Amino acid sequence: MKKKVGLFYKKNGSFNNAVITIDKSIIEALDISKDSNEIIFTMKDNEIILKKGKIKKDEEKEVKDIHGDVVEYAKNSSINFSKVYKDKDYYVAKLNIPFSIVGTLKISKDNNEVNITSGNGWVKIDRKERIGKVYTLKVNKGGIGKTFLTVQLAHGLAMQGKKVMVLTSDSQNNIIDFTLSEDKQENIELKKGLRSWVMTGKGDIIKLRKNFDFIPLESSVFTQRFLEKLPIFIEHLKREYDYVLIDSIPTMKIDTEFVKCSDKIIIPGFCDIPTLKGIINVIEEAGINKIKGIIINLYRNTVTQKEILNKLANILNETDIVFPVPIKETSIIESLVKKGKTVWESKAKSVIGAQNSLLDVILEM
C-alpha cells in the first residue's frame, strides 16, 4: 500500500516532526496494541523495517533486519495510540519518523508518499519505485486447473510479503470460489470490476488474503477501446503490486492482450495427450523464451501418465523452463478447494508435495 508522511513545522518554519498514520493491517502484522506498543525501528539501504520488541544495550551494534543482515541504523521506538474521543474507546495509531530519515528518504511536502509492505511480524517502509512482474497462466484447453494454480501461486507469493493482484478473463470470477467459503461469498458484490478500472480508473478490489487482491470481471464483451487501454492499466498495476497474475481463458479476445502485457507465461497441464499437444502449441505460439514454468496438476502415477511426463521432461530437458514435480490428485486438496482454502492453509502431510512443487515455481518468479 502507499501512504503519505505528514510533515509538520513550527511557527518559525523549522521542522517539528514527521508522522505516518498506522492502519489495522500494520498493527496486526506487528502484533501490537495500545498497551504493548514497543517496536524496533531499523534502516538499511533506504528501507525502514519495523519489528515488535526492544533492543537491549548489549545488542545495539548487532541488530539485524528481516534478512539477517546487520542494519545501519537502529533505535527503540513505539507506535503512539491517541484517543480520538474522550467518551469513546476509539484510537488512532501513529509512527514518528526521525528527521534524519526524512532527509535520507528525500521526503518533502510535495513528494511524501511511501510504500508499505507487511509480513509475518515485520513491516517495511521504502520509497523505491515498484516495477512488478506480470504472469499469465495459459493453456489452450479448459478445465485444466488454471484458476486453482493461479490462486495457489498468488497466495504463496503473498505469504512471502509480496503484494499480489489477480486478474481474470472469466466473467464467472471463479477465483472467488477457490478463495472464499460459500457464506463469505454472499457478502461479495460484483459491480465495478476490470472494465470500470480500465475505462474510468475506479472500481472494486476484493481483498482475498493479506497482500492478495482480486479485480473481478463484469462482462466477457470487450470493446476495442477497452483492449487499447488495458495495457496502460496493467502498467499502472505494476507500480502498485509486486506481481500481477492473470487467470486466462484462451478463447477470449482479451487473452491476446494479456499475453502481450505479460513478462512470462506459466502453463498448467494434465498428463494426457490433449494437454501435451496444448502445451506444445502454447510454446510454439508464445516462443520458448516467454515460458517461465509448466505445472502438471491432478497427477496419477499410472503407466500412461508416467510416459507422457517423461516425454514432456525430455522436451524441456535443455531449456530454462521450471518443471517441478507434478501435483498429485488428493482428496485433501479437493476438500480445501471446496472450503475456499489454499494449500498453504493446511498442515496435512499429503499437501507438502504440492506446496514444494509450487515453491519451486514461486522461487523462480
Secondary-structure map with pairings?
Elements: E1 2-4, E2 6-9, E3 15-22, H1 24-30, E4 38-44, E5 47-52, E6 73-78, E7 80-83, E8 91-97, H2 99-104, E9 113-119, E10 122-126, E11 133-137, H3 146-159, E12 164-168, H4 182-185, H5 194-200, E13 206-209, E14 212-214, H6 224-238, E15 243-247, H7 254-261, E16 264-269, H8 273-286, E17 291-296, H9 303-316, H10 331-338, H11 352-362
Parallel strand pairs: 11-15, 11-16, 12-14, 12-15, 16-17
Antiparallel strand pairs: 1-9, 2-3, 3-8, 4-5, 4-6, 5-10, 7-8, 9-10, 13-14
Protein name: ParA family protein
Organism: Fusobacterium hominis
Domain AAA: 133-285
Decide which structural class fits the backbone.
alpha/beta
In the CATH hierarchy, what is the class of the largest domain? Answer: Alpha Beta
The Cα radius of gyration reads 23 Å
Indicate the low-confidence ranges by residue numbers.
none
Give the biggest sheet.
7 strands, mixed
**CATH architecture group name of the largest domain:** 3-Layer(aba) Sandwich
Globally, the shape reads globular
Order of helices and strands: EEEHEEEEEHEEEHEHHEEHEHEHEHHH
Query: Number of helix segments?
Result: 11
The percent range for helix content is 25-40%
Number of strands: 17
CATH superfamily of the largest domain: P-loop containing nucleotide triphosphate hydrolases
Q: Strand order, main sheet: write it out.
A: 13-14-12-15-11-16-17
Strand fraction: 15-25%
Assembly context of the chains: single chain
Organism: Fusobacterium hominis
Domain AAA: 133-285
Protein name: ParA family protein
